[in-house]
Amino acid sequence: MVDVLVIGGGNAALCAALMAREAGASVLLLEAAPREWRGGNSQHTRNLRCMHDAPQDVLVDAYPEEEYWQDLLKVTGGLTDEKLARIAIRASSTCRGWMRQHGVHFQPPLSGALHVARTNAFFMGGGKALVNAYFRSAEALGVQIRYNAPVDAIELDGDRFVAARIGAERIEARACVLAAGGFESNREWLREAWGQVNGEWVAENFLIRGTRFNMGVLLKYMIDAGADAIGDPSQSHCVAIDARAPLYDGGICTRVDCVSLGVVVNRHARRFYDEGEDFWPKRYAIWGRLVAQQPGQIAYSIIDSKAIGRFMPPVFPGTKANTLAELARATGLDEKTFVDTIETYNRACRVGTFDHAVLDDCHTEGIQPAKTHWAQPLDKPPFYAYALRPGITFTYLGLKVDERSAVHFGGKPSPNLYVAGEMMAGNVLGKGYTAGVGMAIGTAFGRIAGTEAARAALQSKQNAKETTHAVA
C-alpha cells in the first residue's frame, strides 16, 4: 500500500506529490492524460502572482499583502474566503525558492510591462516547462507516476479515504490528495450550469482554452458522496478568445489582448461594457463572461493602427480594412449601426496624455457605457477586428476546505483526504480572476495538501506499527 495517492497531474498535484515525498512518504501520482498531454491546464500557464514587500529577483518595486488582497477582493466582488485567500497570498512570497529547487526557472521582468513585472513572476518556457521540471524532479525523488489513469470513483469509510478506482482496479493508500481539475471539458455539465437564452444553450458556443481531460468526474463523485461543495457552477476563469481558436488546448496564444486599446461591440454592432475599466491583467478574465452574455455568445474587438505594437499579438491575424464601413462588411456587422457606434465613440473621446502603462486620463464623456481610460478615437486606418468567443479555462465549483486543505463532510474535515488546485479554487475565487492567482492558489494549497497527506499517512503507519507491537 502506498502512503499518499495523488490524483491529477497539474501544478497542484505535482506540488502535493513533491511535498509528500520530501516529507518521507511513498507517493503514487495518477494522471488521466497520456504522457504527451500531461500537466492539465498548468501546461498553458505563464506566471505566478507574487506578494513581495520589496524588489525580489524577477519582481520589481513592491506588491504588499494588502494590495494583493484588495485586488483579489475587487475582482471577486467579495466572494472569497479571506482566511484562505491570505494563506495563498502569503505563500506566494516564499515559494519561488522551493520551485527553483525543483527545476523551475523564472525569466527577467518583461520590458514595457511595469505593472505586470511588479506583480507576476513569469516561468522561463511557460507552464509546459514548469510541469516538465516538476515531473522530472518527482521521478528523481522516487514518486511513482502512471499516465492514462483516469480515476472514476473514490471508496470512502464515512469521511475517511480508503481507495481509488480506475474501472475494476482498486488502489489503496493511507491518504489521498484530489487535484484532478474542474469540469470545463464536460460540455453537458456546462450546458446545465449556464442554461438557455431564447431557446439556445449558452455553453454551446464556448471554447475550452485548457485541457480536454477535465471532465469533472471526481468532483461530481465527491459531491454526490456528500462532500461539502462551494461555488457557483456557472462561474469560471472565462476569457474572451479568438473565435477561430481550437475547441481544446488553445492556451495563451488564442487570447485577444487589444480590448483596452479600442472598443468591443456585439453582433448588433453595439458596445456593452467599459473597455478601459482597469489594467488588462486585472480585467481580461471578465470578458469571457461578458461575451457569453451577449447574443450568440460572440463579440468583436475593434482597433485602429495606433494600437498595433502595444499588445501581445494573438496567433491569428485580425480582419483588416481601410474604412469602418469596409470592416463592418468584412465582419458581417450592420454597416450603418457599426459606423454610427464608432463615430459616436470617437466624438465622446477626451484625449489627455495616453499611457497604457498607467490609469491615464484619456476617457469618454456623454456615452454609455463609458470608457474610463485609454480612450482614443479610432481614426487611423487600417482598422482591425477580432471576433471573440468565451474561452473557459477552469470552473469554480469545488470542494470546501480549511487551512489544512482537508475535504469536508457535513462541516467536518476528513482525517486523510485532501484537495488542491481547481477542485478547491472556488473557496478563494467565487467569481472573477486576476492574472497568476490560479497558480498561486494551486501552489499554496498543493504544497499544504501534500504535507498534510504525508503527515496523516505516516501517522497512520506509525499507529498500525504500534498496534502490531502491542498485540505481539
UniProtKB/TrEMBL annotation:
This protein's UniProt keywords: FAD, Flavoprotein, Oxidoreductase
SUPFAM superfamilies linked: FAD/NAD(P)-binding domain, Succinate dehydrogenase/fumarate reductase flavoprotein, catalytic domain
Limits of the FAD-dependent oxidoreductase 2 FAD-binding domain: 3-428
Cofactor dependency: FAD
Matches recorded under Pfam families: FAD_binding_2
GO molecular-function term, one example from the UniProt record: oxidoreductase activity
Protein name: FAD-dependent tricarballylate dehydrogenase TcuA
Taxonomic source organism: Paraburkholderia antibiotica
